[in-house]
Amino acid sequence: RVEFLTAYQDTAYAQQYSAFVEKVRAAEAPHASTRLTEAVARYLFKLMAYKDEYEVARLHTDKAFLDRIASQFEGDYKLHYHLAPPLTAKRNDKGELVKRAYGPWMLSAFGFLAKLKGPRRGPLDIFGRSEERKTERALIVEYRKCIDELLTTLSAEKLAQAVEIARIPEEIRGYGHVKDRHLVAARAKWAALMAAWRGAAGQRKAA
For the chain, which residues make up each domain, given as ranges? Predict the structure, then answer.
């Protein structure tokens, strides 16, 4: 996962991930468990490796991917792409992004875009201005803050509850409007689980 995140963005980004996972590991170790660490390692990675325009470009220009495509066809062939970039795609009557076809020239555009991942999350990231990308970045921060809160009152008795909360990103599936729908449901479950966690912590303090 560290290697993937290094390719996805850079070494510093990958180190943020590994440092946070190690912090969870250290907090969980006194309870003779690695369940929470494993959950955080999996789902923080999922959130940090969100598939934006730069990542789509990187994956489509990956040599292994292109070789796999080439092995499935003989002679001349052309690739066409069906995409719905949040920044430029039109929406239907339901407000959902509509995919449109892009010709073979898109591979060259992908090659150029894949080299521009540096500005990701910065002021020069034009794709990062869409609501979808803002939400994905905010989720990473929100998830880390949530885990930090769990660690402050973590105990062997509450470990299973903490793991369930750490697995919330599993509920956030799909892309575009599908992901938005799942996110609404996931947030409701997340809020309920955190309310239960905080309620239990408050009862112990009162006792």
Answer: 1-51+128-207, 53-119
pLDDT tens sequence across 56-110: 788 888 888 788 888 888 778 888 888 877 767 788 887 777 888 888 888 887 8
Secondary structure class of 33 (helix, strand, coil):
coil
Q: How far apart are CA 18 and CA 40, in angstroms?
A: 11
Contacts of 186 (CB under 8 A, 6+ apart): 168, 169, 171, 172
The whole-model pTM stands at 0.75
The one-character DSSP state at 82 is E
What is the DSSP secondary structure assignment for residue 57, as one 8-state letter? H
Tell me the residue type at 105. Answer: W
Q: Which residues contact 76 (CB under 8 A, 6 or more apart)?
A: none
Report the alpha-carbon distance of residue 85 to residue 192 in Å, rounded.
33
Helix (H) or strand (E) holding 59: helix 53-60
Sign of CA dihedral 136, 142, 148, 151: negative
Cα atoms in the Cβ-side hemisphere of radius 13 Å centred on 62: 12
